[in-house]
Amino acid sequence: MLGFTYSFSVWRGDVDPVFPYISAAGDNRPEACMFSMFLNICSFLSMLIVYLRYSLVAELNRSSDLLLKSFNRLNLYAGLLGASGMFLVANFQETAVIQVHLFGAFLCFGSGCVYMLGQAWISYRMYPLFSGIRIAKIRGVMAIASVCLFFMAFGFGWAAANTFHSVFPDLPTPRPWTHKLVPMPATICTVSQR
């Protein structure tokens, strides 16, 4: 779905085709309308998938493991919180309200990392009856990589903004960061979460 927005943004020359800054693809009209619509659909589908996974684990567990039952419910909240962050990113474009947009992105990716770690733990906990050790290990590796990349993206973005503002204190942070490798960790983090 979002590939359409990306393709349209590249065709119009609004983003760099190699390393696009994700929010820049949905910042100008008409891309902003398509970006919001498709990301809202993705957010709804993410909520649905999170709830279906919660229901599956709850049904397979059927109160036989109370710790797993409680943790599954907490992980449901983390997943729904991440999808809600995606709604914020979709509906508050970067140039409109940057604080809400960045909060939504942080919520989306941060809660997504927590959700992935939780799913990895649930898979380990459900082994050997309902989950294979291979899928549990794959989920664990992907979750740890996602957390590392999330902190790298956050850290490098913060450092880049501080460095820029130490030299140019009166200028706003330049956006979008196209034709630079700054959004690369965020892109890797996004890909690793799917």
Care to give the gist of this entry?
This protein has 194 residues and is mostly helical. Helices cover 75% and strands 0% of the residues. Helix 1 packs antiparallel against helix 3.
Describe the structure.
This protein has seven helices and no strands. The protein is mostly helical and 194 residues long. The chain has one domain (2-161, 172-193). Helix 1 (2-12) runs antiparallel to helix 3 (31-61) and helix 3 (31-61) runs antiparallel to helix 4 (66-91). It is found in: Endomembrane system. The chain crosses the membrane at residues 34-54, 74-92, 98-117, 138-161. It holds the Pfam family Frag1. Residues 3-167 form the CWH43-like N-terminal domain. InterPro entries: CWH43_N, DRAM/TMEM150_Autophagy_Mod.
Estimate nothing, just give the exact number of structural domains: 1
Strand content: under 5%
Which structural class fits the helix and strand makeup? mainly alpha
Shape: elongated
Mean pLDDT over all positions: 81
Rg result: 19 Å
DSSP summary: helix tally = 7
Family: Belongs to the DRAM/TMEM150 family.
InterPro entries: CWH43_N, DRAM/TMEM150_Autophagy_Mod
Domain CWH43-like N-terminal: 3-167
Protein name: CWH43-like N-terminal domain-containing protein
Which terms would index this structure?
single chain, about 190 residues, mainly alpha, 7 helices, about 0% strand, elongated, CWH43_N, transmembrane, transmembrane helix
SSE topology sketch:
Elements: H1 2-12, H2 22-25, H3 31-61, H4 66-91, H5 98-126, H6 133-167, H7 184-193
Helix pairs in contact: 1-3, 3-4, 4-5, 5-6, 6-7
